[in-house]
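Re-run with default settings, no changes from the original entry. Doing this only to confirm the output is reproducible before filing.
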Amino acid sequence: MQDTTPSLSSTDIVLNPAILPRNSTTFFDNWPHAKPLPTPAQIRSSTFEFSFEILHHRKHGPYAQRVLYIPHLGLVIKHGPRTAVAEGQTLWAVQKYCPQVRVPTVYGWCQDGNEIFIYLSYIDGVSLDSRLDTLSDTELQDIAVQVAPMIASIRHLRQPPQNTFVGSQDRGPIRDQMWWSGYEAPPTAPFLSVKEFNDALFALAAHLPMFPDHEFYRSFRSSFSDTSSIRFTHTDLATTNIIISRTSTEVMGIIDWQESGWYPEYWEYLKAKHTAPPRWYECLDIALQHPYVQQIVYNMSWFPRSGQVSKGSVVKHTSLHRELRCQWT
């Protein structure tokens, strides 16, 4: 639990885990086709009446996942150890309580053996990443302006004030890939406070040289507030997960919500900045409109970006620089 009880405004929506569809097999009455959804057996064997595409396939480890697309049905299917009911629950909640956010329609999910299968609508368009080099600065800013109210909307979702935690929406552990180490399992339970989350994040560097006494680590840890509010967070707002029109700057949707959940309010901004390509980096200040930008900017000065050690780092030890590049990229 947080040390202080968070306050709620008139625009906030309390999302109690108890209201989420919790059955391991759940289907909604929104499938638009006469032909039934493919069964797990058909999906595993890829025996479909229609042609299909494999959008993603990671074959090994507990994070293995296959994502299929059947164009004739406009259907996306996700399955594998990485797939969890929590993503379906998130999409259900976002569609119900934040209708201005463009997300895939979730038709349902089922469990077959040890696997979860999630059935989603396909959002027609292309990733922002695929057009990043052809869009002007003004066009990128227009896209950021469209993303801003969507993210602001989900941040009005709130936990019950007396039941706060950092974790997945169903009170499970966080699923953010920053916590992976190869195929090592992530935390197995939610963090009961922001301090626990910050301490665990800091501990990811435990194997690095001079941890935890070097000035880099002390400054890095002290820059993160242990009293931050907890907000609903997508946590993977990469340019690959923002879908735009093939021919204009219209934002068609935000996809890949499998890591989403309750995180410290700074995490969306920090994580997005960490993974952003250079041309999208400044646009995130428009898209996320974080109210504590100055504090986050200071945090970012200690958070090594992709392919480099942060310019704010005062660490000069060469081997430490090399290790940090490996740890945070």
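Residues 137-154 form the longest helix (18 residues). Confidence is low (pLDDT under 50) at residues 304-329.
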